[in-house]
Amino acid sequence: MDWKSVKFDWNRARAFLVTAEEGSLSAAARALGMAQPTLGRQVDALEAELGVILFERAGRGLTLTPAGLELLDHVRAMGEAAGRVSLTASGQAQSIEGTICITASEIYSAYLLPPIVARLRREQPGIEVEILASNATIDLKRREADIAIRSFRPTQPDLIARKVCDDLARLYAAESYLERIGNPETPEDLSNAEFIGFDTTSVMVDGLNRLGLSLTQKNFPVLTGNHLVHWELVKAGVAIGIVPEAIGDREPGVQRVLADFTPMEFPIWLTAHRELNTSRRVRMVFDLLAEELGKPRRQGDR
């Protein structure tokens, strides 16, 4: 390779890549944890080094020029390669101290992770923990998190996954709401009941109907994509919601709707990047999570 022909700074190329992906200098600066003027100077310097204009201003955002578009795929490949270098180095690190980022759904992050993190901090005080609570699929390959708790098995070859258990979710409602609708005893009694949906699609309606209910979108007058808000609405007596059994059964004032109604079963997978999973720190946290999440969760457990 002719190293003399490489006439730009990688840090400046990274500034260009993140700015292109984030759409503005301010968003890119936040993503990189640096000052916006510093980032802007790096992008300007890269344009000067390469002799091209990479961005045009569009309102408060930025639009790639044809030259910027042409370079983007090449710089993105460089970014992915840099990420792989970082992953490999992290995977070979044998120090138990350092930071670990765990991502899980909002409701798991709020209700199941805290006691596990408490144990981790007692046993390994040198490990600093970041919890990324999100219902979105966080990209482990891009180091957005180290370990993910998911309800599906990943398909990417670079990821390692372990199924730790099957979890159950049920219909729950506040006792006050059930009294208001006459304490239903059969699936037919729920035909006119109100439910809390997650979105405007028919996924939840169709899923519940397959289990024996007879519902339409009119049964879902309240929607929220946030699972914590969903649970708070249930507790407030707004309507019926779907909550993991281990969380719903331990809440005073809330009870299962139709105690014998078929629960919804879904797997719980732990996932980590293949190279990160060779790190002592990540391996230790991964195994601890597997142990704790794999324990039977009984009614009343905290």
Describe the structure.
- This protein is α/β, with parallel strands linked by helices and 302 residues long.
- The chain folds into 3 domains: 3-92, Arc Repressor Mutant, subunit A (Orthogonal Bundle), CATH 1.10.10.10; 98-165 and 266-294, Periplasmic binding protein-like II (D-Maltodextrin-Binding Protein, domain 2); 167-265, Periplasmic binding protein-like II (D-Maltodextrin-Binding Protein, domain 2, 3-Layer(aba) Sandwich), CATH 3.40.190.10.
- Helices cover 40% and strands 21% of the residues.
- It contains 11 helices and 11 strands.
- Strands 3, 4, 5, 6, 9, 10 and 11 form a 7-stranded mixed sheet that branches. Strands 1-2 form a two-stranded antiparallel sheet.
- α1 (10-22) packs across α3, α1 (10-22) crosses α4 and α2 (25-32) packs across α3 (36-50).
- It is globular, with a radius of gyration of 24 Å.
- The relative contact order is 0.14.
Question: Which SSEs are present, and which pair or pack?
Answer:
Layout: H1 10-22, H2 25-32, H3 36-50, E1 55-58, E2 61-64, H4 66-92, E3 98-104, H5 106-111, H6 113-123, E4 127-133, E5 147-150, E6 159-174, H7 175-180, E7 196-197, H8 203-210, E8 222-223, H9 227-235, E9 241-244, H10 245-248, E10 254-256, E11 264-273, H11 280-294
Parallel strand pairs: 3-4, 3-5, 7-8
Antiparallel strand pairs: 1-2, 5-11, 6-9, 6-10, 6-11
